[in-house]
């Protein structure tokens, strides 16, 4: 077996989570991702709302794929290997903190850009955004606990079972999509009563 194949085999052996709730969350991700892309197609004529839901759908897709593949494990393994090969292993903690700060900054910048571009339609997706905020909190805790960020580690200790956050956020987004796609559409199709003639 080549070194690359051995590296990939070790990553795949460490990735994934075979617990019952992990598979429930993975299945819910799949359902929510399908619904979000269906809704994104439905509203493609409304550019700000379409952009917002494209961003949300892409974020959900990335989170869903990462749920079982654990790309953060691949990044950590790759980073440690490079640090060892280049002699920077003695600065591993500093590099780990810097990587966490860079990733967090990029995520924050992307979120800020989307919110500014789509500020006119934020009120029309406030429930889904609330669920997304919970998922972002979960992501912050996961990245922070891996990179040794003290605030994230304290939050993980307080919340105890952070995967409940992930499930809660997904459930809120799922409920909002059901409303947007099915219930809200039916409400728009209901015939409006004619106003009573003025006497």
TrEMBL record:
Keywords: Membrane, Transmembrane, Transmembrane helix. It comes from the Bacteria. The chain crosses the membrane at residues 20-39, 51-69, 89-116, 128-146, 158-183. This is Uncharacterized protein. It comes from Spirochaeta isovalerica.
